[in-house]
Amino acid sequence: MLLHIERGRWKVKRPSRSIATPLCLIFFALALGAVAVQWRELLQDMPRMLPLDTVGSILAAALAAIVFWRLSRMEKPFGHVSLWLLAAFFAGVLTLGQSFAAWGTTELLRAGRESVLRTALYWSGRVPFYYGAMVLLQSALGKGEKSATKAVAVHGLCAGRRAWLMLSAILFLAWIPYYFCTFPGVVSNDSITQLKEIFGILPLEAGNPVFQTFLLGAFARLGIALGSPDTGVALYCCLQALLMALLLGNLLQSMAEASVPRWLLWASLAFLALCPVFPLFAFCVGKDTNFAMAVLWFSMEVWKLLQQYRCGLNQEGKPGTLCLSLSAALVLLLRNPGVYVLLLTLVPLLIWALLQGRKGAVSRLWLCPALALAITATLWLGLRLVLLPLLPIAPMPETEEYSLPLQQVARVVASEPESLTEDERQVIAAVLDWEQIKAVYNGELSDPIKLLWNRQATAQEKQAFFRLWLHLTPRHAATYFSAAFHNSYGYLCPGYLSTIKPTLLIGKQGRIEDLNPRFPFSVNPASSNLKAAMDIPTGISLGRLLVSPGLYGWVVLFVLVTLLSSRPKRLLLAAAPALFCLAGCLLSAVNGYIRYAMPLYFCTPFLLALCAGPQPEDQRSDTP
Length: 624
Description:
Elements: E1 2-6, E2 9-13, H1 17-42, H2 54-72, H3 81-103, H4 113-141, H5 148-154, H6 161-182, E3 186-187, H7 189-198, H8 210-225, H9 229-257, H10 262-274, H11 277-282, E4 284-285, H12 287-311, H13 313-316, H14 321-334, H15 338-358, H16 367-390, H17 403-415, H18 422-429, H19 434-440, H20 447-450, H21 459-471, H22 477-486, H23 527-533, H24 535-538, H25 541-547, H26 550-566, H27 572-586, H28 598-610
Parallel strand pairs: 3-4
Antiparallel strand pairs: 1-2
């Protein structure tokens, strides 16, 4: 890629095809060097990242050959500046992630000249490869059918309800074998806590969503009324899996009718049916599956609203006000931070709709997001101001939102205590147990530090701590960055599987001895065999890529860049919920935790569908 000045402005001069061929050969050689470094040397002591076995190395080299061969046959392949920047970012995050996985620091970048050279090759060989893969993906996504009717026929699907039910049935039947090994279903650790609160073993607390706690309580008591706690668990899991299959089937049917390429539709069907994450969480009692379903449904409703705008309100009928409002309400009720996802999506959507009304495009479009925003605001206020004060429910622990500042200050204390003055130490000691910080600090889990929080600290002491946190930022910028990156890199490093907590929820998930007298549900003994079987796909490179959350974090950012650079900007509103869920993962308490990233798994086919198909002729809102 070359730069030249044209009329006083910097322009990208794309290489001709004759230049592209030797460039592809050079980039291919760099990619082979990066694969060799990862296979032979770099990852010997990094079992949690993505060690390339022999088969994985051969496949990576073959994929690199295909990518650069296809690029060499394109007319102008190297002019996408945004994708170069994104590829450099991805390669940099992965390189740093390898270092933090092994040592918890940036040691890989400063462990001697030879190590630095290997690291430079590891990074530089990946940048053009990631760039080329994204260029080809964008090109493949653009090859959709221009007609929705023709697209449905090409994909071999019948339109309407029959296609929806057929796709849903395929997914449900593909998941059933997992249920044989987990019946009546897996009860997650958080759900065990909620059951203890329901039956009075623990006091009710708003740390878990109150609505989800009451929903679980209804199924638990129904199971007891029917004669067995296992019946309640089984009913919950079966109903959840059925609704999940119907939702994902509706997504696939909508993708077929939205003119997506054939390969994307069938790849999405295979992904949803065969990736073990979906059946394992479909038959798991937990808040994460519910919330991921709500986020996907909400995103799809926003997408439908945008499609109605493109086609004209009179052609599509009234907006789906009820569905948008109901999906938004579930996002709010099924996860405490869901209110942020709604605000950051519905408010921009409402502003955009009002602007279109002022332009005379669609005059009543704003009613749909306005009503959804009003309903969710009323629900939130009712929960906060009426329900929680009236019921004996303790508020959510304040430290739930403090993961980032607590981890950053704790890392300074653990690694550089001598840099703090006596006054600064006293400020920290007023809210945290100073003597325990270094002993319990874990760079990938903030819970140990949050447990040191002094709940009896005064408001003035807490304010002083957060002022100190901000004051230390310029002095300890590198340490703050290390703390934030160490606690979040798994969400952007494909192949990383956390060992801090159970990732694929199978079998027993928590202490149930004190719960058994009240609600003695069963743990299927066959689940141990399933758990051992899951070690097979997660033990190889491709399996870890598919199961770990990092790949899906990449998809979110790739879609963001694609929508910003080459698609109608209004589609960003449909991608916003997944983007904010990724941001929530990066600020969460656990690094690379699969269940926190569940909305990203669910939304991946949907996000790619936003980028699919030919460029629309309607360009009314291509400008922000």
